[in-house]
Structures are given as C-alpha cells and as structure tokens.
C-alpha cells in the first residue's frame, strides 16, 4: 500500500492511508484475527450476517414498493 505525501502534509496522507485500509478491509480482518474463531462459530456468524443482509434488502425493497413507510426524515428545527 502506497500513499504519497504532498507538500509535507502528513495528516492528509494519514487520512488517505486510513481510507485505503478501510476500503480494503484491513481493519476488519485485524479485528477478526485478534483471537481464534472456531470454524463452527465462523459459520454461525456468517449465517447471521447473511440473514441480517437479506432482511435489510427485503426491508428496502418493501419501502421502495410502498409496503412500508420510508425512513424518518430529520427536519431542521430553528
């Protein structure tokens, strides 16, 4: 992974590096590898994630079709 530092702006380069690492999933992988996860636990976690994803997709589809109300919109209170 490579990030260029322009005009001695290290803060901007660090932000760019963090964004790249986040996009690549490095932080998620580091968190997962902190401790050993048994294969059965891994399968259970992945199954739960798949269920959560499918429910979210179904909810969004129902909102698009008008079967469910959409997300509440925030109004600026002044």
TrEMBL record:
> Which species is this UniProt entry from?
Jiella flava
InterPro entries recorded for this chain?
A: Ribosomal_bS21 (IPR001911), Ribosomal_bS21_CS (IPR018278), Ribosomal_bS21_sf (IPR038380)
Q: What is this protein called?
A: Small ribosomal subunit protein bS21
Keywords of the record, alphabetical order, are: Ribonucleoprotein, Ribosomal protein
Entry similarity comment:
Belongs to the bacterial ribosomal protein bS21 family.
Gene Ontology cellular component annotations, sorted alphabetically: ribonucleoprotein complex; ribosome
Here the segments flagged for biased composition (Basic residues) are 50-61
Query: Which processes are annotated in GO (biological process)?
Result: translation
Please list where the region (Disordered) is annotated. 32-78
Gene3D superfamilies reported for this sequence: Ribosomal protein S8 (1.20.5.1150)
Q: Which domain of life is it from?
A: Bacteria
**Annotated Pfam families:** Ribosomal_S21
State the Gene Ontology terms under molecular function. Answer: structural constituent of ribosome
Composition bias (Basic and acidic residues) maps to 32-49
Xref: HAMAP family: Ribosomal_bS21
């Amino acid at each position: 992974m490579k990030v260029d530092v322009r005009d001695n702006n290290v803060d901007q380069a660090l932000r760019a590096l963090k964004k790249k690492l986040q996009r690549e999933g490095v932080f998620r992988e580091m968190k997962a590898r902190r401790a050993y996860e048994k294969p059965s636990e891994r399968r259970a976690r992945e199954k739960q994630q798949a269920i959560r994803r499918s429910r979210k997709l179904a909810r969004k589809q129902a909102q698009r079709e008008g079967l469910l109300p959409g997300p509440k919109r925030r109004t600026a209170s002044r």
